[in-house]
Amino acid sequence: MENTIDLAESITAAKCSENLSSVEDAIYVIGGKWKLKIIIVLQESGNIRFNELQRNIRGISARVLSNELKDLELNGFVKRVVHAEQTPVVVEYISTDYSRTLRNVIIALSDWGKMHKRNIRTEAFLSQ
């Protein structure tokens, strides 16, 4: 796979700069406190309405959720579906196929987070 980073090979300044730029781009699009949480809930829930989405993400305000959904929609991670044929009009949000390309990244972050938490707990226990 040509897009992987081989840490065993010597890293040139140009390659390092390219990798930093790629990571910076990724963090810009999915970084922050809420975006990955929203993507995860959408991937696990399927079609979901705004209020239900807000209930599933503890602590997020309606204004922040609305802004984050707009950003995610602009970047192709979320699709907003309006059911105008119903009264009242129903709006649902769904994750796109593109957002599902983050699945391995999310799993890797989750695994790393679990490992890190165990590591911190172990170090805290050993230092007592």
From TrEMBL:
It comes from the Bacteria. Residues 16-121 form the HTH hxlR-type domain. The keyword Transcription applies. One of its GO terms (molecular function) is DNA binding. Pfam families: HxlR. Keywords: DNA-binding, Transcription, Transcription regulation. This is Transcriptional regulator.
